[in-house]
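Q: How do we represent a protein-ligand complex in a form that can be generated token by token?
A: Start from the inputs.
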Amino acid sequence: MTREIIIAPSILAADFARLGEEVTAIDTAGADWIHCDVMDGHFVPNISFGADVIKSIRPLTKKTFDVHLMIAPVDPYLDAFAKAGADVITVHAEAGAHLDRSLQAIRALGKKAGVSLCPATPESAIEYVLDRLDLVLVMTVNPGFGGQSFLESQLEKIARLRSMIGERPIRLEVDGGVTRDNAAAVAAAGADTLVAGSAVFRGKSNADYADNIAAIRVAAESGRVPRESSVQPGRAGERVRAR
Ligand code: DX5
Ligand code: ZN
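Then emit the structure tokens for the protein with D-xylitol-5-phosphate bound:
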């Protein structure tokens, strides 16, 4: 089943002095989800914001809050992020020894459960928790900072995960260095959910945000491989692309 492309701007790249306005701006500019990068200065070498900031921006938009927890330990904080208004809570496979338990805890809180893989972590790390997942997040940078360069090495991992996921109802998200220039390759590899921070907030005006989101979406759509099974009857021998 081919899922519609989701564009999830990361508010890590927003102007924190005007965070509320920035959230409203990307909502209006066409963001499907709002990606919230939580960093603790321990799991990653940077500190961003916590549950209280998410709680404060929650009333500003009805869009999905896609909360990426780059923290360790993670279990003690799941309840706070759920209460703050997270809709999807993604934990790192590398953040602790008990990933299966963390994913169960997220679903027990009534939220969608995601796992994120650092660039060095193979897709096999999630082989035994696939049925606990609503989302897999492939890091295409080493987590901790926005504005880094996309790691091409991860395209093969994205394709392998697409194959692992099969027909399961799991979104495949990519995060780090995603731009309008590589979005087609990211989607062609099998991703359906694209995080972008600096590539969305580039330009700083609301009109720029809309243009940036639209450009990433158009590029991603252009990279999608037509489904074989949806070939429509056409002239003999003609291969008709999926609608
Ligand atoms: C990095 C974060 C990413 C990052 C994306 O640790 O998880 O979401 O903010 O920012 P860009 O798109 O600028 O790489
Ligand atoms: Zn992120």
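DSSP finds eight helices and eight strands in the chain. The two ends are 13 Å apart (CA to CA).
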